[in-house]
Amino acid sequence: MRKLIVSAKRSIDGLFGQLSIQAKLILTYVLVILIPTIVFSSYLLGANYRGNITSIINKNAYFLGTEKNNILNNMEGMERTAQLTLADRDVLNYLLNNYDISAEELFNFNAGPYNNLQHILYNNPNISNLRVFTDNKFAHEIWPIIFKESRIAGEEWVKKYKAQSEPSWWTIYTGADHPLVTESPENSRNYTFVSLIQEIKYPLDRHLGLLQVNMKSDVFFSKIYGNLQDHSSQLMVIDRESLLYYNGTSLFYEKITPEEIKREFMQKTRGDEGSFQFSHNGIPYLCVYTNLDRLDSHLLTVVSLESSYNDMNKTRLAIIGSTLLLVIILSIITYKLLSVILKRLHLLRESMKKVRQGDFNVEIPHLGGDEVGELGSQFRQMLKKMNELIIVAVNKQAISQEAELNSLRNQIDAHFLYNTLENLKMMAEIEGQLVISDTLTSLGGMMRYNLHWTHHYVHLYEEIQHIQNYISIMNIRYSGRLDLRIKLSERLQQQEILKMSLQPIVENALKHGMNSSRIRKRSLIIEISAYEREGFIYIVIRDNGAGIPDKRLQEINDLFDQDSMTADASMGGGSGYEIIGKRDRSVHAGSGIGLRNVNLRIRLHYGQGSGVRMASIEGEYTEVTIKIPYLILSGGMAE
């Protein structure tokens, strides 16, 4: 799984990497707008839908509450009717009578107490029946209220009443409007009644019969069977036996049957009241229900959410369509704006292509002061620096070639000279001329050092050895009056230095120092020392010779400064190399490489901050200081 994710990520990165900057920016722009819009729209639509569902639940809960109150009012009316009936002592005495009453007594009962019962019945027009069923054989039946209990002995609701323990009991049943057996079956008509049944006990809990108060279901549940409901919702009642009571003429049940609603209700109802949602044939429904305690039934309303879903889908499509249209319009505008902005970047890209093809003289136009303009400016500076580095490389090669040519000019035949010197050295040793033998050894070392140019850089100790050979030879000429003192640490002896950069300075010190009258009487001391500071190494060559007058010293240092500017100019694109060796040669040594040559070589090879400075006090000393970067050659830090 992880490999698949990594592979998919690489594929996406590769595909995204192949797109142009303009396409990436537009795609990013679209995603930045589209994703938050979709998330925000989904949230708003969800919140709106939840709000609509909550509103529908509250509306139907209120509607259920209103119907429940109506039902409770009807139940209270039926209970009052029963209470008024049982409160009449004359009626109870009539049911308790243990003899055959006379016609006069029957007439008086009919005109009095029975008439009151009829008033109770007729004063509440919603009540369909008020019936008193007695098992007293002396009580006469008086239609439509007083009947023999034997007439209902086989009724189902009587059996259910007797099977439970409560004296007062509510039920819903279907039966005839009256229990007269004389009515023919073809003339009878069955109705659904909500019935209150109560046992008549008097006195001392003596069973006198049953009291029944009936109200037709379409009156009792007025809103269930009424035409006030719309086609998107319906009220229903489910009794204790899971029987349904509903308006069968409603078009609502064309899309879902009452049995299917009952099945969902049985599966999802929790507690006495609440709500739940379900779907049937792709249509969402909402059911809100409440309990009718004394009737042991549930009153529920079922609402079709099809129209709400359709409205939400229309809103969703409108939002999505508007969002897509907005994204398309903004993408077109962004594309046009990016075309203008990236036009300068395309110009810069074309210029880079020309540079890649070898054209380093490309003219980069001014591209403004923004990031693209800054990029163009940096690219111009880079081209300028590249041209400078190319010129520096050419100048370095030219200087190296000049040094090699100067050395080659002094070369006659290396093998001939080496062989000749070896022969002379052997003859001197045979003759016992050890001084001559040592001098020839030093001369051979100098020749090998001068004629062997495989590298531009050497260790400092190698240059020192070359100077020691040179002083050894020159001591023959000056009768040993040259004293070379080396003050270098082992670490600094590994310093990188340009080959033949110290010998011209020592040669210059010897040439001018030995011309002093006071030196002719004593030794010329040449001291070479070095120290490191802030990333640079300073190599100091000091002699106790004649010194240099202040004016001449200033002129020499000015020439060094001019050489520094010349080197900087050549590194910046000038052609300063052509002046080497063509200006004032007064500070050049006999070697042909001279102090100014050394200074210019150091500047060209090591850059700004490096070079040669001279200090002197006439009659006391002369001091030449070389400043170069601190690079240990044996450590691999320089090539």
Descriptive notes:
With 639 residues, the protein is of the alpha+beta class. It has 17 helices and 17 strands. The two termini are 51 Å apart.
Structural class: alpha+beta
Give the low-pLDDT segments.
181-185, 571-593
Physical arrangement of strands within the biggest beta sheet: 2-1-5-4-3
Distance between the termini: 51 Å
What is the share of helical residues? 40-55%
The description of the largest β-sheet is:
5 strands, mixed
Q: How would you sum up the global shape?
A: rod-shaped
If helices are DSSP runs of H or I spanning 4 or more residues, what is the number of helices?
Answer: 17
Query: Mean pLDDT score, rounded?
Result: 80
Radius of gyration: 62 Å
Give the total of beta strands. 17
User: What share of the residues does DSSP label as strand, in percent?
Assistant: 15-25%
GO molecular function: kinase activity
Pfam families: HAMP (PF00672), HATPase_c (PF02518), His_kinase (PF06580)
InterPro entries: Bact_2-comp_sensor_kinase (IPR050640), HAMP_dom (IPR003660), HATPase_C_sf (IPR036890), HATPase_dom (IPR003594), His_kinase_dom (IPR005467), Sig_transdc_His_kin-like_C (IPR004358), Sig_transdc_His_kin_internal (IPR010559)
Enzyme class: transferase
